[in-house]
Amino acid sequence: MSDTRAILQLENVSAGYGKVMALTPVSFMLEYGSLTMILGPNGAGKSTLLKAIAGLIRVFSGRIFYEGNDVTDIACHQRARRGLVLVPQGRGMLPGLTVAENLDLGIALGHWSNSGYDERSNLDYVYNLFPDLKEAFHKDCRYLSGGQMQMLAIARAILARPKLLLLDEPSSGLSPKATERVYDALEKLKTQGLAMIIVEQKLVPLKSTPSQTIVLQAGRVIHIGKNEKLSEEELASLYIGGEQSAFA
Amino acid sequence: MHLRELILGRTRALGQAFVLVLVLGAIVPLLHSSFWMYTLGTVATFSIAVIGLNVITGMAGQVSFATTAFMDIGAYCYAVFTTKYHVDPWLSLVIGLIAAGVIGFIVGIPLLRLKGHYLALGTFALALAFEGIATGANVVTGGPIGLSAIPALTVGDLSFASTVPFYFLAWSLAAVCVLMVIRLRNSRIGRAWLALSTREDVALSLGINVSLYKVLAFVISAVLAALSGILYVELTTFVSPDVYGTDFLIQIFAMLFIGGLATYIGPMVGAAVVVILPTVFSVSQSVSALIFELLLLLIIVVFPHGFGEWTENYETLRSFVARLRRQGRATGLQVSRYEKVK
């Protein structure tokens, strides 16, 4: 049964590739407008979890509820059209397309997802959030910096007016300054009530406290904490020795 | 500047390329050579099939060997309806195109669930299957001998079986196909194709119904292949299973790669190279084939992305010239040129 406060609820969801299980059964709930951080080292199953939520891979077991509806068997593109949008790992740039054309893909999704979608006001909103993109409007996206590419990937998703944004390692390959700029924008989105799940390998410069922090290792959840900010030491000892060693 | 204006601006630039094709196409009749008009009419005819192949393989990123199957479908529909049922040629043409589109849709749904090598194999099997049907269904298709004396398209007293009217018909249709592809590529459909050919997960997460867009590309490719097949029947008044066999499939792919994947004028350039080169070097059949194949090899090595990229991307041309200059400097060519001027 799904919780009415929950925008997303996972019940014993396990997933993997082929016959290999990369994620053992996991259950958690995410409220409207809340932020969940999922942390874990390489191969922990973080991206697998996001892909399962987004519908890019089939789950082995369990159910996924989005806005109270069971979406476990619903295709990825249909979940996106309902407002469950993933920003995949590696920024998902489409070489050969300009910044404008990339943004237009987000606008198309916005039209599919929302009746009476206002293209102009949504574009203005994105430009306020990422002024760099306005300047690089007609540039081929392959010539953008890493930070700009990440901004474009997020902007493309934001243009669709999502209700839940899934971000797979948005700081990957970015300089500390670029990471800070990306996270500043994400903080703004959070204050405006957008629910988010952010997957990262390491701690990131997040000013606010996440509603929920989930730590994964070797495909299983080793820690779930509410309204807490893990320190580097706590995260390191979780990675090394699991829940008990970190909070002994 | 508004988003649409920028995208339209790019479309306008590509529209200029389209006008260039029209102009080049219109100049040639001034040569008053029926041989060249026939040859260039053939170029236009084949380039339509290559444009279709470019949509599914170059733009949507799905390797398809089914082009010759749909050329067969178009050609045989046209030939059978005109010769056996005496249906009006124009109506037969429309029936051929619709048949290719419908079969493309029905076959495309299960076939395009396959990926990579499996899709390539599946579409190759389709091409072989239609070749087999054309050979085996004697009563309808005429078997290995095929069908001949196929009536031509006419408008009043004007028959498109004649070289000059055919030349104009083929080039007009090729130009329309180029224009259509330019419009499609710069629309949301084209961007969706690019997304699914680059990263399917990104396309899906952007709400793009990947299966639908793949099938759409396959159907467009099928219809264009059928049109090309019908036009070639128009030119030769004949169709047999050998015409669109495996050899021809290889040639169609050579046209695509020589022209350049995902380019607009590339299919015409590729078709021109593959059709014209053997006629230019037709000393004897074996020598001609050898020279042609060596030239193909040379072209692919020197221009791995095809000629089309050069005709449409000024940056590529500029960087190539810059690279030549750098190499020239390194090998002392620059010095010798300077001395020559002196």
Quick structural overview:
The complex is a heterodimer of chains A (248) and B (342). Chain A has 248 residues and is an alpha/beta fold.
CATH topology label of chain B: ABC transporter involved in vitamin B12 uptake, BtuC
Q: What class, by secondary structure content of chain A?
A: alpha/beta
Describe the largest sheet of chain B.
Answer: 2 strands, antiparallel
Query: What is the subunit arrangement here?
Result: heterodimer
Topology, element by element:
The complex is a heterodimer of chains A (248) and B (342).
Chain A (H helix, E strand, L loop, with lengths): L5 E12 L2 E12 L3 E5 L6 H9 L4 E8 L2 E2 L5 H6 L2 E4 L11 H15 L5 H11 L1 H5 L10 H13 L5 E5 L7 H16 L3 E6 L11 E6 L2 E7 L5 H15 L2
Parallel strand pairs in A: 3-8, 3-9, 6-7, 7-8
Antiparallel strand pairs in A: 1-2, 1-4, 4-5, 9-10
Chain B lengths: L2 H25 L6 H26 L7 H17 L5 H23 L4 H21 L1 H4 L5 E2 L5 E2 L2 E2 L3 H23 L2 H11 L1 H6 L4 H27 L1 E2 L6 H14 L6 H15 L4 H18 L5 H5 L1 H18 L1 H9 L1
Antiparallel strand pairs in B: 1-4, 2-3
Helix pairs in contact in B: 1-7, 2-7, 2-10, 2-11, 2-12, 3-4, 3-5, 3-10, 4-10, 7-10, 8-10, 11-12, 12-13
Q: Would you give an account of this structure?
A:
The complex is a heterodimer of chains A (248) and B (342). With 248 residues, chain A is of the alpha/beta class. Chain A has a single domain, classed as Rossmann fold (3-Layer(aba) Sandwich). Chain A has 8 helices and 10 strands. Chain A has helices spanning 46-54, 76-81, 99-113, 119-129, 131-135, 146-158, 176-191, 232-246; strands at 6-17, 20-31, 35-39, 59-66, 69-70, 84-87, 164-168, 195-200, 212-217, 220-226. Chain A has a 6-stranded mixed beta sheet, sandwiched between helices. In chain A, 48% of the residues are buried. Chain B has 342 residues and is mainly alpha-helical. Chain B has a single domain, classed as ABC transporter involved in vitamin B12 uptake, BtuC (Orthogonal Bundle), CATH 1.10.3470. Chain B has a two-stranded antiparallel ribbon with strand order 1-4. Chain B has a two-stranded antiparallel sheet with strand order 2-3. In chain B, a hairpin with a 2-residue loop joins strand 2 and strand 3. In chain B, helix 3 runs parallel beside helix 5 (116-136). The longest helix of chain B is centred in the middle third of the chain and has 27 residues, at 210-236. Chain B is globular. Mean pLDDT of chain B is 84; it is low at 331-342. Chain A binds chain B through residues 51, 54-56, 75-78, 80-81, 85-88, 92, 94-98, 100-101, 103-109, 112-113, 119, 123, 137-138, 156-157, 160, and chain B through 1, 3, 6-7, 10, 188, 191-192, 194-195, 198-199, 201-210, 262.
